[in-house]
């Protein structure tokens, strides 16, 4: 019987509280009552974060107060001398103040380093790199909505154990030597940040990383005046799933980084990782945040309040993009095709335009008629291909993909020695496919 089977009376289903049983084929804990399945490391993290939530339910007579948006339900905390006229999440003016309803006790705070004026400048510089944004996007009225917000983050330490199987390729002249790979790795992560706010996109908060924790201090109220702070509101299960997903991604990155450097390319077909020994602290990290509503859609933008890193899904003006695509159609498709069409048909049209004497002076020109027409056709195909490429470029550049989270190197704990076990077996030699 597996260790997880023995723990069936300890681990309960978060959905229905039924006993969970370990399935060796899927390596997951299954509930036989409601059919839910969970990764073991999710349940371990869930146990840790559930205890944290239980400890925070006490009410307090703190002199600070909460500002509540009746439109989107957002709640931010500030000192009694700081007020707001609009919600930084949805732009609604329907705000009301009330006393704190739960205890507010972060462990640490990272003070703002970027002023509002600096944040405005960085926002304009970042947004202006895309010429398809709406006209009023960088207007004074809009960027004045930038709000200094201390976002709640859990800084998580954990031990990661990974087991991966795949294929490695080593170049040998024009060939590739193929190896079957087996990797087992134990390593440690330190202070990986996970935002605890439901109102802010996890992708957005991951994109403003990293923060320099060396400037973090123990939480004090004196850093709050003039800014707002959120209290975490994600459920323990949501937070645990985020932790599990990110540590699994870091596990594969770590295996490739630390044990596959001799291979030109590595592809893992199967793998498993598990995070344990969780330790965490609760910190408020500085973010300049702004909401922008365009054509009925809310867009969120964030600027790291310490480093000035800006990110967000930029809206694009359909009018500007239509104009750009129209210019491409005219200048890169219609006009070039007309000119090439005239060139291609010139040998056919010329006899109807010129006199017989003029045609004689052209000499052997008509011997090249087929060549000219074929060249014209190939050039037209080239123009069409270039047009399509430019069309795709404009369509893509009018979007603004959010940066991915930092790589595993950012949070790898080098103070603890990793354990690496590797087994490589030569399989075959294959012909390299040249690009």
Give the SSE layout.
Blueprint: H1 3-6, E1 20-23, E2 28-31, E3 37-38, H2 40-55, E4 65-69, E5 75-78, E6 95-99, E7 108-109, H3 116-127, H4 140-143, E8 147-172, E9 175-195, H5 202-207, E10 217-218, E11 228-229, H6 236-259, E12 265-294, E13 297-304, E14 310-312, H7 318-353, H8 356-361, H9 369-397, E15 419-431
Parallel strand pairs: 7-12, 8-11
Antiparallel strand pairs: 1-2, 2-3, 4-5, 4-6, 7-10, 8-9, 8-12, 9-15, 12-13, 13-14
Helix pairs in contact: 2-6, 7-9
What features would you highlight for this structure?
single chain, 435 residues, alpha+beta, 3 domains, nine-stranded mixed β-sheet, three-stranded antiparallel β-sheet, 9 helices, 31% helix
Task: Please provide a written account of the structure.
The protein is of the alpha+beta class and 435 residues long. It folds into 3 domains: 3-38, no CATH class; 65-315 and 415-431, no CATH class; 320-397. The protein has 9 helices and 15 strands. The chain has helices at 3-6, 40-55, 116-127, 140-143, 202-207, 236-259, 318-353, 356-361, 369-397; strands spanning 20-23, 28-31, 37-38, 65-69, 75-78, 95-99, 108-109, 147-172, 175-195, 217-218, 228-229, 265-294, 297-304, 310-312, 419-431. Strands 7, 8, 9, 10, 11, 12, 13, 14 and 15 form a 9-stranded mixed sheet that branches. Strands 1-2-3 form a 3-stranded antiparallel sheet. α7 packs antiparallel against α9. The longest helix has 36 residues, at 318-353. The two termini are 52 Å apart. Mean pLDDT is 79; it is low at 1-9.
